[in-house]
């Protein structure tokens, strides 16, 4: 008996709306490699966790644009398993600048895919309706989510921006002709007030309308089938109800996440109990909804705590039977002596990071093989 087929349409609508049939990956036309990645990330999350670093291959502490280099590899011998990039330069720039930005990132994404690594994409989206960049600046920025939603004054402009993203998604072809999958994480930290899409400037209804349109337009109209869609607030929630306050629905999200620096040492403040509670909230929601979950951003700037990796991060990640497929720390600035979140040779936490790397629970790029080709059966480090 085909349970779905044999249910009367009216009853099926009721059951779907009540959540009796929960969605897994939302794009039924996703490429084979994207589907396999999704399945393997779910498998990994049950026993291990992947390590990620933002802008890992583009630049690092004191260097930029050097082939096959990352600060993480300099310390451990392996690139991070998850490499963060950003679509920030895909709008608000001249056509020439946008094309240059796309070309610079294209090879990064393809190379990561061909090595077996994973790309995740944040989007520091320059305000399409005012000056001020991606931050909200009083007297300069416009609260623009209402303007870019369907029917808004800047909706057509927003569609053109999404076409630029789709063009990039269609261009990241490996030597074998397959497209590189990416985890796309738009409108992150939306519960804060620092970005123009933040909660103080955007109604719940407008946020959800823009999110739903973005996903539908990319996959259904523009034919992007190599994205996994991630939903990630900051840490401004205390329970599942608050976490889901702006959730656009199971048909529009593949992955639940959270960005949390504040509970893990920012400004010298630690609240492990609060941080762990929040991780547990959305990890449990993801299990219930048959979605992925990830710690989409965290870190300790300058890493002054020499044992932060094992005594803070690893200890937390191993607690409460969390099911997170990856944890990503923020970038290492090229010139700043203090703005970095992963160690480099000689940094005070280097030895502890190597212990973190060697722990069987954490996986780096060297530990994953054929993650796009076949469903994983064995979960163990391969190096």
Describe the structure.
The strands form two sheets. The chain has an eight-stranded parallel β-barrel. Strands 2-3 form a two-stranded antiparallel ribbon. The chain has twelve helices and eleven strands. It has 383 residues and is of the alpha/beta class. The protein is globular, with a radius of gyration of 20 Å. Strand 6, helix 8 and strand 7 (227-231) form a beta-alpha-beta unit. Helices cover 35% and strands 12% of the residues. Helix 11 (308-317) runs parallel beside helix 12 (350-358). The protein has one domain: TIM Barrel (Alpha-Beta Barrel), CATH 3.20.20.
Give the tags.
globular; 383 residues; disordered N terminus; alpha/beta; 8-stranded parallel barrel; TIM Barrel; two-stranded antiparallel sheet
Give a brief rundown of this model.
This protein has 383 residues and is α/β, with parallel strands linked by helices. It contains 12 helices and 11 strands.
Please give the alpha-carbon distance between the first and last residues.
46 Å
Q: What's the CATH class label?
A: Alpha Beta
Looking at CATH, the homologous superfamily is Glycosidases
Number of DSSP strands?
11
| Share in helix | 25-40%
Oligomeric state of shown chains = single chain
In CATH, the architecture is Alpha-Beta Barrel
Widest sheet: strand ordering: 1-4-5-6-7-8-9-10
Estimated structural class: alpha/beta
Number of helices: 12
């Amino acid at each position: 008996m085909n349970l779905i087929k044999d249910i009367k349409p009216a009853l099926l609508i009721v059951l779907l709306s009540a959540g009796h049939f929960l969605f897994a990956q939302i794009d039924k036309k996703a490429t084979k490699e994207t589907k396999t990645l999704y399945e393997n990330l779910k498998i990994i999350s049950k026993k291990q966790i992947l390590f990620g670093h933002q802008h890992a291959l583009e630049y690092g502490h004191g260097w930029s644009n050097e082939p096959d280099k990352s600060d993480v590899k300099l310390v451990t011998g392996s690139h991070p398993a998850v490499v963060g990039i950003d679509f920030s330069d895909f709008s608000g720039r001249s056509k020439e600048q946008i094309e240059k930005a796309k070309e610079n990132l294209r090879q990064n994404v393809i190379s990561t895919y061909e090595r077996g690594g994973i790309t995740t994409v944040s989007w520091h989206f320059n305000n399409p309706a005012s000056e001020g960049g991606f931050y909200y600046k009083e007297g300069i920025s416009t609260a623009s989510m209402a303007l870019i939603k369907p029917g808004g004054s800047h909706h057509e402009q927003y569609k053109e921006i999404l076409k630029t993203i789709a063009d990039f998604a269609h261009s990241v072809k490996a030597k074998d002709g397959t497209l590189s999958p990416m985890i796309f994480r738009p409108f992150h930290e939306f519960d804060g007030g620092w970005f123009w899409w933040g909660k103080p400037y955007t109604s719940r209804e407008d946020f959800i309308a823009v999110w739903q349109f973005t996903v539908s337009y990319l996959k259904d109209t523009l034919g992007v089938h190599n994205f996994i869609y991630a939903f990630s607030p900051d840490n401004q929630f205390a329970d599942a109800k608050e976490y889901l306050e702006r959730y656009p629905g199971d048909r529009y999200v593949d992955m639940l996440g959270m960005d949390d620096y504040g509970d893990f040492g920012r400004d010298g403040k630690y609240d492990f109990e609060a941080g762990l509670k929040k991780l547990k909230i959305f990890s449990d929601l993801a299990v219930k909804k048959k979605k992925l979950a990830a710690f989409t951003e965290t870190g300790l700037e300058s890493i002054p705590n020499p044992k932060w990796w094992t005594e803070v991060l690893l200890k937390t990640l191993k607690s409460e039977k969390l099911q997170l497929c990856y944890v990503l720390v923020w970038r290492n600035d090229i010139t700043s002596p203090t703005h970095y979140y992963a160690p480099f040779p000689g940094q005070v936490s280097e030895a502890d990071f190597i212990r973190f790397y060697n722990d069987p629970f954490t996986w780096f790029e060297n530990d994953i093989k054929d993650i796009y080709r076949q469903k994983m059966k064995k979960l163990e480090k391969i190096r």
